[in-house]
Amino acid sequence: MTHEPEYPVVVDARRVIADRVVELTLRITAGDLPTWEPGAHVDVILGPDLVRQYSLCGDPQARDTLTIAVLHEEVGRGGSTWVHEKIAVGDRLRIRGPRNNFPLRDAKEYLFIAGGIGITPLLPMIRMVAARGDKWALEYCGRATAGMAYAEELSGLDGVRIHSSDGSGPLDLSTVLGTVRPGVQVYCCGPERLLAEVEQRCAAWPSDSVHVERFAAGQVESEADEMFEVRCAQSKIDLMVPPGSSILEIAEQAGVQVLSSCREGTCGTCETVVLEGTPDHRDSLLSPQERQANEVMMICCSRSLGSRLVLEL
Question: What predicted TM-score, i.e. pTM, was given to this entire model?
Answer without folding.
Answer: 0.79
